[in-house]
Specification:
The complex is a heterodimer of chains A (about 350) and B (about 250). Chain A is an alpha+beta fold. Chain A is about 30% helix and about 30% strand. Chain A has ten helices and 17 strands. The two termini of chain A are about 20 Å apart. Strand 9 of chain A pairs antiparallel with strand 3 of chain B, so a sheet runs across the interface.
Chain lengths: ~350, ~250
């Protein structure tokens, strides 16, 4: 299902919310577990939607780690256990939908003054590790499991999967040889460089002045790509639902538009053609990501390039700028996980 | 050329290199992470002309995407210490970048690779013991109960098999390409043979080492995509040789 430029909640969403309220007493309602920082926008938005629909959920608030315990057991094919938060205890088997956006537990503000190896640090670590291990094997829908996210640790590795899904990818050269970069620059005109791993980097245009320091790549192969002209489109897929957002900017990296060109990027809801939408859905499926943020660029000639698939999309930025009901779709998915 | 890729000091890789070479996989090169990290030139391209690779190593050796006929891949990780004397922060960054590069170029090789990199590791799926336990149960193997809490992680007998690399307390079963099962220390019942094949398929790992208890229960103890190949002896070497050659022929 594609969601277009209409910023109002779609009829299906409103109907779904009415259904949930009326059915809550008649049907067994799936229990949802949210894991992360409650005030972080992606978590906060989906909480709002679940509360508006009176859908039950449990909040694994990382900052309350001291009040929590989690234990699970694998016996044959059965996975059982409990999550205790304060005085409340929840059976893990009751959770059918899990949404995780966890920060590094060792950087929680509550642990800032704790020395390495302290009891609190060990408890936080043990709790989060138990949660992670359980989330990797639970039969519940987990948005998203940690294992499939690993493809994002190597952009060229992921690019090979993107190519197999039928998308174009930018011409890419990874090298430690300055002469090869000069030739690549000469052939493609404008080129950019960025990290190949999961380490976040700001995409930069390679300029003439960069030749002076090009010899540094001898120490570590670096990724260069031919610049692709066109419109950036971020596509969020949730199962079979697709939300496309066009981003208008002259910056090389729209995420840092203000820093690069002194102006914010403009976001607008848009539509994809059926073929591209379907390819996005299939790509997310192949990558085993129930929720994916896919970065596309559509050239003036209509060619579609795919740069990356983000396994933990911060969708709230796009929703807050366009009104697209991504959080509603996420709440729907968590409340009604596909078989 | 054929390649055996390994971490420094991987004795099992050296053993396999000698055995595969003796079985006619020649020319066969044994190349460590250290040698790869000191490559003179890296050239890895993705684009309309497909995926290309050229790695120029010392002693006039070159690896290209079309010159490799098959790979036994035992690279597990890039040790940041191998990138000394760079400062810590730069070493960490370079480690992640090189790992990303290794994932890509190994995945891109058109020849047979045992094991290809996946999202979970450079040489096949590295999983937590809890995941292996769960998968083994799904494959139909008997398993111990695994328990983990915020304060402890226990599994009766889960790690006991690790001491049985040469069959003192456990049998090591090798699964190659979801079609070949080999155990040097015991004759496997058909049901266990089939369960091991299913585990290899569920794990999506072409070369898998599985440790089962050395009693009538054949209880699952552990699994790894990087088993000690020496436990498989000549039978395993024959299987690896056949698998690499057979897949190489199909690729042609």
């Amino acid at each position: 299902m594609k969601h277009g430029k209409n910023n109002r909640p779609h009829a299906k969403v409103v109907g779904f919310l009415r259904l949930c309220r009326s059915d809550v007493r008649r049907k067994f309602i799936n229990m949802i577990l949210l894991c992360g920082i409650p005030s972080e926008s992606p978590i906060a938005l989906v909480r709002e939607r679940l509360e508006a629909a009176h859908l039950p959920y449990v909040m694994f608030s990382q900052r309350r780690f001291a009040e929590m315990d989690l234990e699970f057991e694998i016996s044959g094919n059965q996975v059982r256990g409990f999550l205790r938060i304060g005085e409340a205890t929840h059976r893990l088997e009751e959770f059918t939908g899990v949404y995780t956006r966890l920060m590094d537990d060792q950087h929680l503000p509550e642990l800032q003054s704790e020395p390495p190896g302290s009891r609190s640090r060990r408890h936080a670590r043990g709790l989060h590790d138990a949660l992670l291990r359980w989330s990797e094997i639970t039969p519940a829908l987990v948005v998203n499991r940690a294992t499939p996210m690993g493809s994002n640790f190597s952009k060229p590795f992921q690019a090979q999967m993107i190519l197999r899904a039928g998308f174009r990818t930018p011409e890419t050269l990874i090298t430690n040889d300055p002469d090869l970069v000069r030739d690549f620059h000469h052939r493609h005109g404008r080129i950019i460089y960025k990290s190949m791993s999961g380490v976040r980097s700001i995409v930069q245009t390679f300029e003439e002045k960069d030749y002076d320091r090009l010899h540094h790549i001898r120490w570590c192969p670096t990724q260069f790509q031919a610049y692709v002209e066109g419109t950036n489109i971020r596509v969020h897929t949730l199962g079979a639902e697709v939300f496309a957002t066009a981003i208008k900017t002259d910056a090389t990296d729209y995420r840092y538009a203000r820093k690069q060109i002194g102006d914010y990027a403009e976001l607008e809801a848009t539509c994809l053609d059926d073929d591209t939408a379907e390819r996005c859905i299939q790509l997310a499926r192949v990558l085993e990501l129930p929720f994916a943020g896919i970065d596309l660029k559509v050239t003036p000639d209509g060619e579609v390039y795919c740069f990356e698939v983000n396994p933990s999309p911060a969708y709230s930025y796009y929703e807050s700028n366009t009104g697209q009901s991504i959080s509603h779709a996420l709440a729907r998915m968590l409340a009604n996980p596909p078989n | 050329m054929w390649l055996v890729l390994c971490d420094p000091f991987d004795a099992a890789a050296l053993w396999a290199y000698r055995g595969l070479s003796a079985r006619g996989l020649n020319p066969l090169e044994l190349i460590s992470t250290e040698v790869l990290l000191r490559a003179l030139t890296w050239e890895h391209r993705l684009g309309v002309d497909g995926i290309r690779l050229r790695i120029s190593l010392a002693k006039n050796r070159t690896i290209t995407h079309d010159s490799v006929r098959g790979v036994l891949n035992r690279l597990s990780f890039i040790d940041p210490q191998l990138l000394a004397p760079a400062p810590q922060a730069e070493r960490n960054y370079a480690t992640q970048e090189m790992t990303a590069l290794f994932m890509s170029w190994l995945a891109a090789l058109p020849c047979p690779v045992l094991n290809r990199p996946v999202a979970q590791g450079l040489s096949g799926s590295w999983r937590h013991p809890s995941e292996w336990n769960y998968l083994a149960a799904q494959a139909g193997l008997a398993t111990h109960t695994y328990r983990q809490s915020a304060s402890e992680q226990t599994s009766k007998g889960l790690y006991s098999g690790l001491t049985g690399a040469f069959g003192f307390t456990a049998h090591t079963v090798f699964v190659v390409r979801e079609s070949f099962v080999h155990c040097r220390t015991a004759a496997l019942p058909l049901s266990i043979n089939d369960a091991c094949l299913r585990l290899g398929a569920l794990a999506r790992t072409d070369l898998l080492g599985i440790q089962l208890s050395a009693d009538d229960s054949w209880t699952f103890l552990s699994a790894t995509p990087q088993p000690d190949l020496r436990a498989g002896g000549a039978g395993l070497l024959n299987a690896l040789t056949f698998s690499l050659r057979d897949e190489a022929r199909k690729e042609q």
